Amino acid sequence: MRALLDLVLPRECGGCGAQGALWCRRCAGVLSGRPAPVTPRVDPGVPVWALGAHDGPLRSAVVAAKERGRRDLAVPFGVAVAAAVRALREDGEIDPPELAGLVLVPAPSRARAARSRGGDPVLAVADAASHALAPDPVRVEPVLKFAAGVRDSVGLSARRRVENLAGRVSVPPLRDTGRPECVLFVDDVLTTGATAAESVRTLSRAGVRVDGVVVITAAGLVPR
């Protein structure tokens, strides 16, 4: 059956387009490094780490996942996010599972965009990361929502992105588990940091302390 499907719909790497693999070894190697700390133009007030630059195969893969229906790429992305979490724990940047349960909060997505993509790609990545981190205690909380009127941020300047999102990210009251938790905001692309900054502020107003931001790719950012 797999051979027949490959004849009808040849498997193609989401990063480089190579035939025969949905995610080839070379592209997997691009995501195998440790997360790099970065400094966004719009500071979210918490540490930010990126798995790679927004270019080459990573950029192609993110675009394929968001715009071309490559839902299968959520798995390698999620595995890479899980590896980043382990590295951050080893480096003492975030608490280990013995001290705090992990909460992954996916970036908010416009409802129309999520419907057109067959689901929220960032939520799919967070879910895949939680499975890859098992048996560690991990919760995925897709609680952040965009209010009506939020525009697509493509082509907007940093100032316009901030204005576009100001006060337009909402979160319902979150349940108190009664135990220490490490909260990470997760997104696919970080361009200016406006979405991360507004999301962190929204969570903070709801009484949730965010420990850091993890993104798959970062565009035009200066490493710390």
Point out poorly predicted stretches.
1-8
| Biggest β-sheet: strands ordered side by side in the sheet | 4-3-7-8-2-1-9
Number of beta strands:
9
Q: Fraction of residues in helices? A: 25-40%
Head-to-tail CA distance between termini: 49 Å
Structural class: alpha/beta
Looking at the structure, what is the overall shape? globular
* Rg of Cα set: 17 Å
Main β-sheet, in a few words?
7 strands, mixed
Q: Mean pLDDT score, rounded?
A: 83
Order of helices and strands: HHEEHHEHHEEHEEHEE
The number of helical segments is: 8
* Beta-strand content: 15-25%
Give a verbal description of the structure:
The protein has 224 residues and is an alpha/beta fold. It has one domain (33-223). The chain has eight helices and nine strands. The chain has helices at residues 2-8, 25-30, 56-67, 74-90, 111-116, 121-132, 158-165, 194-205; strands at residues 36-39, 48-53, 101-106, 138-140, 145-146, 169-170, 181-190, 212-218, 222-223. The protein has a seven-stranded mixed sheet, with helices on both faces. The chain has a two-stranded antiparallel sheet with strand order 5-6. β7, α8 (194-205) and β8 (212-218) form a beta-alpha-beta unit. α4 packs across α6 (121-132). The protein is globular, with a radius of gyration of 17 Å. The relative contact order is 0.20. Residues 1-8 have low confidence and may be disordered.
Features:
224 residues; two-stranded antiparallel sheet; single chain; alpha/beta; seven-stranded mixed β-sheet; 9 strands
